[in-house]
Amino acid sequence: MNQTLTIQKERLGTYLNQSFIEVGRATEFAIRFFKEAIRPPYEFKELLKQCYLIGYKSLPLVTITGFIMGLVLTLQSRPTLAEFGAESWLPSMVALSLIREIAPVITALICAGKVASGIGAELGSMKVTEQIDAMEVSAINPFKYLVVTRIMATTLMIPLLVIYADGIGIVGGYMGINIHGDVNVVRYLSQVIESITFLDIFPATIKTFFFGYFIGMIGCYKGYNAENGTESVGKAANSAVVTASLTIFIIDMIAVQVTDLFF
Amino acid sequence: MEKNYTLQNSNPVIEIKDLHKSFGTNEVLKGVTFNLNKGENLVVLGKSGSGKSITIKCIVGLIKIDSGIITVFNQEINSLEIDELNKIRTRIGFLFQNAALYDSMSVRENLSFTLRRHDTTLSGDAINEHVLEVLESVGLKEAIDKMPSELSGGMRKRIGLARTLILKPEIILYDEPTTGLDTITSREISELILELRQKNKTSSIIITHDMPCARLTSDRIVILKEGVIHVEGTYDELEKSEDEWVRSFFI
């Protein structure tokens, strides 16, 4: 009994120890990003390419999910609001839910799945096939070329994708309302605009920069530190999605608390 | 013990003294010491896992050493700042075992990528001219717009070699340049190594298990055993070695 307890304690100790080491390494990686990002030369061309790949190439996915978010939210909320005779609040409720919470979190999760896994697999594959080493021995800074550009691109593109998803979600909401009724588009939009204030948009947009930064950071960290062997490429991609998704929820929770405190 | 071989008027471009490297409890290098002389082709032999690749990765600072001294062009690698180390790296070419071509870039981009970053004054036309010139030197001018996935093993090695040549290195480190290739292609790569040495006056360290390649390319051979240099000499000397273990490489 005592022996089992000791073994379990040792396992817990090892796990905690490894977890702290991992957090330390990730922090070091994050600090290196800021150091390398401000130091010239800058890889503008690669940054633009990554913005295109991460932003533009994610548009179809974000369009579909954004539209469905708005549509489903409207259809699901309508009966409850109708029960209280508050059906006319539907446009405001849908817009506020989308902008404050649903669009940022769902879009970030979709991007964690698509972008973080893509970055993790790409860098992981480059690591195991010695392409990153090849850059280093050619006196090219692989961290600056591969990591800095990708993290910057996700930090810039995720907020834009979320704003786009907000818009598409509102369109989806309009379609949802018109399945069971007939609401004029001008009236719908004016109700939406009237209900949204700066304090709804500002904190929600700020948190999306953090979502973007962490999606890029985690994807790059997992890929860049993949150990030798093709198996580690899959592990890096998988681990990037899981960690990035979890981090999005943690950031969202912190962001809600901070918003409550200051706004 | 084998006779020590030294080039006349030897002028070392790489000096390795008492190099130690461990990975956890596994001590791979236990005091490796050898020199690479200017203009020389040095072949490193040894069993798989004996630390040959690790040794050349230590030379370019890809792997941090535990102790010992590595001097390249009279500069101690371990004490250099990254910018100084990068200056040395531009004078060393490294051919990876699997060529390590950037698979998202075409052959042209693989070659121009490095050049563009080291000489920002070069125009697009001048870069193109350089790329064509090195591709011609490895006999693969026609592959310029191909992607790495479209190339055969031998072609990948040649393009990898072209990429190392683009910065006109004074030293080239070859990590198993003929592994995985058929006999004819292996011979072509070995001849290319000799041709490039003659043309560019480079010094090279060649890690290989391919004895025809070692015979063709080597001026001198060192054999790693249990983390140290067990023996050194010319191909002919080592082939006739009294040490049975050494002779077993040449059968």
Automatic annotation (TrEMBL), chain A:
The UniProt record lists the keyword Transmembrane: yes
Pfam families membership: MlaE (PF02405)
Main location: membrane
TM region(s), chain numbering: 54-75, 204-224, 236-258
Superkingdom, taxonomy of origin: Bacteria
Subcellular location: Membrane
Membrane topology annotation: Multi-pass membrane protein
Keyword terms of this UniProt record: Membrane, Transmembrane, Transmembrane helix, Transport
Keyword Transmembrane helix in annotation: yes
Family: Belongs to the MlaE permease family.
Classification via PANTHER family: ABC TRANSPORTER PERMEASE PROTEIN-RELATED, PROTEIN TRIGALACTOSYLDIACYLGLYCEROL 1, CHLOROPLASTIC
Entry protein name: Phospholipid/cholesterol/gamma-HCH transport system permease protein
Lineage of source species: Bacteria, Pseudomonadati, Bacteroidota, Flavobacteriia, Flavobacteriales
TrEMBL record, chain B:
Family annotation (Pfam families): ABC_tran
ATP-binding listed as a keyword: yes
SUPFAM superfamilies, alphabetized: P-loop containing nucleoside triphosphate hydrolases
Top-level taxon in the UniProt lineage: Bacteria
Domain ABC transporter intervals: 14-251
Gene Ontology molecular function: ATP binding
Xref: Gene3D superfamilies: P-loop containing nucleotide triphosphate hydrolases
Alphabetically ordered keywords of this record: ATP-binding, Nucleotide-binding, Transport
ATP-binding among keywords: yes
InterPro entries, A to Z: AAA+_ATPase, ABC_transporter-like_ATP-bd, ABC_transporter-like_CS, P-loop_NTPase
Classification via PANTHER family: PROTEIN TRIGALACTOSYLDIACYLGLYCEROL 3, CHLOROPLASTIC (PTHR43023)
Stated name of the protein: Phospholipid/cholesterol/gamma-HCH transport system ATP-binding protein
Organism the protein comes from: Flavobacterium tiangeerense
